[in-house]
Design brief:
The chain is 28% helix and 25% strand. It is elongated. Bound molecules: S-adenosylmethionine.
Length: 370
């Protein structure tokens, strides 16, 4: 069995959207300098190493700098050639047990298994592997869940290598295997865009208002409006296009059939939250958000999806964030799993930013390079 126990600086496996791997690589290089070694392991998966840089530091930089095109992180502790495990799960299962034992984990932990995009050579599905590993760990007295635990055992299969590792959940950026946030479509769903707002609320610890007023810019057909209503907000839905008829009879939805610019030029209202999913280039969209900041209550939240055009997405995002900074504190910025050619930004009207949550103590053996 090929086992490479953690070297002085363990590799960090990162996930991105397939089309934005180069953007993620560019951001990591800019943040960590020329010493950063980046290798593409799959269409949506890469390996990152920089001397003395541990996963906790990468996670922190992703949040604070921010790095927006990295969606998920795991710490690599063992690697097996995919060719040796493509037909037989046994070596992966044995390695998982070995790592958990070596780390001395006693508390319940999450097991997350995924195949990187383009890994087509496996004779089993990722969920079959999850069940095999979970059964073995359970037989040895461990308590395994799919998420919601402070520690994650991750197993990522790529076309060439199977990678296993253990890290704290805070360092993973999301509590979902490879950052693939699974959301089910409900009968009440109006648009797929709803997933973006739902994912945001699952992935980021945001103090979402549970009452008051929301301004939804670019609201049609009304998916975000529906989600906002569901959270207890009364919604002003601004869009020249029509809303879904299911919203028409809701007295908590005020459809204003005009452009964002015209609405903001005439309204005197102040909102608890402003969201903007308008189909619009990042620069004008940010200008709208700067105008909208004047209509946000103190401490009010803002959410905007920056619609990217193909050339140099990193520069587009960083220019947009600099522009938003005139009126807002950026709380989170990331390309979410449900974002296509866009990035979601969560901001707060400047001067009302709460300090970020401290990292939870997990009792896990510390990473040697931390
Ligand atoms: C991606 S859709 C929004 C989907 C919506 N968030 C949902 O969940 O159903 C983009 C919308 O932006 C609207 N839009 C584009 N430019 C606009 C503007 N200047 N003012 C208001 N809405 C605009 C379009 O009419 C379109 O309905």
């Amino acid at each position: 069995m090929d086992f490479s126990p953690g070297s002085a600086t363990p590799a960090i496996i990162f996930s991105t959207a397939e089309d934005y791997f180069d953007a993620a690589r560019q951001e990591l290089r800019a943040a960590f300098g020329k010493a950063a070694q980046i290798e593409r392991l799959g269409r949506d998966t890469g390996s990152f190493t920089a001397p003395g840089v541990a996963i906790a530091q990468v996670a922190e930089v992703c949040q604070i700098r921010p790095i927006v095109f990295v969606q998920h992180l795991m710490r690599e502790m063992a690697r097996l050639p995919t060719s040796t495990v493509a037909a037989d799960m046994t070596p992966v299962v044995a390695m998982a047990l070995r790592l958990v034992r070596e780390q001395g984990i006693a508390a319940p932990f999450a097991l997350q298994v995924w195949f990187s995009s383009g890994t087509t050579n496996m004779r089993y599905q990722s969920d079959e592997l999850w069940r095999q590993i979970a059964a073995e760990l359970t037989a040895h007295g461990y308590t395994v869940a799919r998420g919601g635990q402070p520690i994650i055992l991750s197993v990522c299969l790529t076309p060439q290598v199977a990678i296993l590792g253990i890290n704290i959940t805070d360092d993973a950026l999301t509590d979902w295997p490879g950052g693939r946030v699974g959301l089910a479509k409900s009968a009440a769903q109006i648009s797929r865009a709803e997933f973006k707002l739902e994912e945001l609320r699952k992935v980021f610890a945001v103090a979402w208002p549970s009452a008051g007023t929301a301004l939804d810019l670019g609201a049609s057909p009304g998916g975000w409006t529906r989600v906002l209503r569901h959270s207890g907000l009364t919604v002003w839905a601004v869009d020249p296009a029509a809303l879904d008829p299911r919203l028409a009879t809701d007295p908590g939805v005020h459809h204003i059939p005009t452009t964002a610019h015209d609405f903001l030029a005439t309204t005197t209202m102040r909102f608890d939250i402003v969201v903007n999913d308008m189909r619009m280039d990042p620069d004008p969209s940010c200008q709208v958000m700067l105008r909208a900041a004047r209509h946000l209550k103190p401490g009010g939240l803002a959410v905007v999806t920056l619609k990217l055009f193909p050339r140099n997405p990193v520069a587009q995002v960083h220019r947009a964030l600099a522009s938003l900074h005139e009126a807002y504190t950026i709380v989170h910025a990331r390309q979410l799993y449900h974002n296509r050619h866009e990035v979601t930004v969560v901001a707060q009207r400047a001067g009302h930013h709460e300090p970020m949550q401290s990292r939870a103590s997990t009792g896990m053996k510390s990473d040697s390079s931390r």
